[in-house]
Amino acid sequence: MKMLLVFLLVMMAACPAIPQDLSGKMFTFPQQTNTAHVKLTSSRQSLGAVTVCLRFFTDLRREHALFSLSTSSFSNDFMIQWDDKNKEIEPHIRDQKVEYGGQDFKLNMWHSVCTTWDSSSGLAQVWLDGQPSVRKYSSSGSSISGSPIIILGQEQDSHGGGFDINQSFVGMMSDVHMWDYVLSSCEIQKYVDELNFTPGNVLNWKALDFQIVDRVLIEEKQSSCH
Ligand SMILES: *[C@@H]1O[C@H](CO)[C@@H](O)[C@H](O)[C@H]1NC(C)=O
Ligand SMILES: [Ca+2]
């Protein structure tokens, strides 16, 4: 009996979740906690270039993480946060912080943010609501590699943990995609305008493999009536 239980637990751990099509839906993070998050799963082990795009809606007036990817080498291997004090979007890539100032955005409405990085040039760029930032150097010469843990709603200070309630995300998030290359400005424009674009080949909102921990809800994305 005990052996059977162990066997079942091992089977459950080994079986990947069935990816879900979240088109027209959003994750709602309804309260400030240091636990609630969504863990996204990708089988990719190595990334020499990255684009992450997502939409968010919040009324937070403090620092918060929008996307947190850690590896066993770097807790901020690809992390995007909003620094409210300095009004900056700050990608952290391979633990190197890049600051993009003058990026203030209105609270209580949807925004899109796309972040690109390429390990050969080391250049990163942020597109907030389709507006490109300066292209800045962050880190070059090595790929993001080794068992990534990708989390929405919390910021990882260690591989898979070290959450801080004061960096948690409260609000809604949708259309999360990740690619293993730098999207062209035209592809980014298509994403921003919600036209047909090539879905992420690392994370795809239309076939998302994820696990919800604590209070995060999947809801219909509210849009205005026509
Ligand atoms: C979070 O911020 C509040 C208000 O600034 C502070 O009182 C509290 O100690 C902080 N909590 C942690 C875990 O840092
Ligand atoms: Ca932190």
From TrEMBL:
<dbReference type="Pfam" id="PF00354">
    <property type="entry name" value="Pentaxin"/>
</dbReference>
<keyword id="KW-0964">Secreted</keyword>
<protein>
    <recommendedName>
        <fullName>Pentraxin family member</fullName>
    </recommendedName>
</protein>
<keyword id="KW-0479">Metal-binding</keyword>
<keyword id="KW-0732">Signal</keyword>
<dbReference type="InterPro" id="IPR001759">
    <property type="entry name" value="PTX_dom"/>
</dbReference>
<dbReference type="GO" id="GO:0005576">
    <property type="term" value="C:extracellular region"/>
</dbReference>
<feature type="signal peptide">
    <location>
        <begin position="1"/>
        <end position="19"/>
    </location>
</feature>
<dbReference type="InterPro" id="IPR051005">
    <property type="entry name" value="Pentraxin_domain"/>
</dbReference>
<comment type="similarity">
    <text>Belongs to the pentraxin family.</text>
</comment>
<feature type="domain" description="Pentraxin (PTX)">
    <location>
        <begin position="23"/>
        <end position="225"/>
    </location>
</feature>
<keyword id="KW-0106">Calcium</keyword>
<dbReference type="InterPro" id="IPR013320">
    <property type="entry name" value="ConA-like_dom_sf"/>
</dbReference>
<comment type="subunit">
    <text>Homopentamer. Pentaxin (or pentraxin) have a discoid arrangement of 5 non-covalently bound subunits.</text>
</comment>
<dbReference type="GO" id="GO:0046872">
    <property type="term" value="F:metal ion binding"/>
</dbReference>
<keyword id="KW-1015">Disulfide bond</keyword>
